[in-house]
Amino acid sequence: MLSPVKLWRNQKNVGGMLGRTGKIISWTIVRVPPADFSDQAPYPVVLVEFDGGGRVTAQLVDWDTKHLSVGQKIITIVRRIIKPNTEGVIPYGIKVKPL
Amino acid sequence: MTVSIIGASTTKFGELWGTSPRTLAHEAMDGALKDSGIVAGRIQALFVGNMLSGMLGGQEHLGAFFAEELGFSHAAAIKIEGACASGGLAIHAAVNGILSGQYETVAVLGVEKMTDHKPEDVATALMGAGSSQERASGCTFPGLYAILARAHMLKFGTTQEDMAAVAVKNHYHASLNPNAQFHRPITIEAVLKSHKVADPLTLLDCSPISDGAAALVLSVKHQASSVKIVASAVATDTLGLAQRASLTELQATKEAAMRAYKQAGIEAKDVDVAEVHDCFTIAEILALEDLGITKKGDAAGGIRRGEFTLGSAKRVVLNPSGGLKGCGHPIGATGVKQVVELVVQLRGMAGARQVAGARFGLAHNVGGSGATAVVHILKE
To answer: Residue A35 and residue B124: Cβ atoms within 8 Å?
Structure first.
C-alpha cells in the first residue's frame, strides 16, 4: 500500500509543517486502531487549532492523561507514522506533542 | 414528472457468515421485483451502491457483475461509491436516470459484505472515506465521530447518557424489526459500561459491522401501492474535519435538507417518520438538529424524553427500523434500506413498528464524517 514514490512526493511537504504551535480543540483516544497502527494503540488523536489559524488532525505523542484537555498547548514534530513495511521505506509525517 | 417506488425489499441484516454477496443481492432484488409485479427483463438500468467490494473483496466492476447475476441482461449498470452514502447516492442517480427521460424502469441495489474480514482491516478500508491527513493520524471513524461528540458536549452540554439514549431507542425499535441485526433492548447503563472504542464513544455507541442488501424498483409509472419520491438531494463538504468551520454541525446535511424541503415543498415539521444516519449515537443528535427537526442543542433532550420513540405520538418517529445502530450498517445497503423502511411505513405495512398515519417520510444518509449527505423525501 505504501508506494515509495508517493512517500517521496508527499514527504516534501512535511518540512513546512514543523514547529507550529497551537491548542487542542477536541480529542479522542483510539482503542481499536486501523491494521497498520495496531502496535501503537491506544493513542490519542487530537484536532488542533494553530496559533494564527488553520487546523490539523494529528496523533498526540509523549502524552500523559493530564494533557488530554481542550486548550492544551502543542507543537508539531516529525515522527515515524507507522513501522516500515517490507519495501523498507519509512513513512515520516507530522504528529504533535504537548508543550 | 415524479418517480414512483413500485418495489422495495431488504434482506435480514447481520453477521451472515453463510451468505455470499450474490445471494444477498438475489434475495433483496427478487423481493423488490416480486413486490413490483414486473419481471427482470423490464429493468433498463441498474444502480449499485457499494463501498468496499474492491478494497476488501477484490471484486470491482459491480455494475456488470450484478446485472449478470440478477439476469438484467444487457441493461445499463453502474456502481456508485460515496462511502456510507453509497446507497443514497445510487437512489439519487436512479431518480435522475428516470427524470432525464432516458429510462422508464430502473433498479437500485445496495449491498455490502463486511464480516468476512478482520475488524482492523475493515477499519483501515473505511478510513478510505476520510482525508489523507486523518489516515496519517491513525484515526478511525469512531475516532472522528468521537471528536465531533466531544465538541458537541463542550458547546451544548450533551452527556454520554444523552448519547446512550439514542442507542437505547434504536435497539428498542430494532427489537420490533424481524430484519434487524439486534433484537434485544439495552439500557443506558449497558451502553456506558460497554468498553470504549474511541473515547467518549463506547462499543454500544457504534453501529455494528454487518452484511446485508436492500433493493428498490423505480418507475415513471405509478401503481396503487407505489410511494412517490418527492425530493432527492445531495450536498458535499470537506473530506476532513480539520478543514471545516464548525465541529458541531454537518453543513452537508443542512444543505441537502434545505434543497430537499424546497423540492418537496414541505418543512421539517411536516415529516412524520425519518430514517436518519446514526452510524454513531452522536450522529443521530447532529442529524436531528441539522435536518431542522429540532433547534441546535435541543435534540438530545427530546431523544432522552422519548419524544422520537415509537408510540410517543409527539413528533416525528426517528429510525423505526432500528437505524444503523440497531438494524445494522452494511455500508452500501444502508441508504437503500432506509428508503425501503419508509416505503413499508408509508404503505402502513410495518406491523409492530408502524408509525400511525405517516404521510411524509425522510431518509438521511451520510458518507464519511459528513463529506456527503443525501436526503430523500417520500410521500404516500
So the answer is: yes
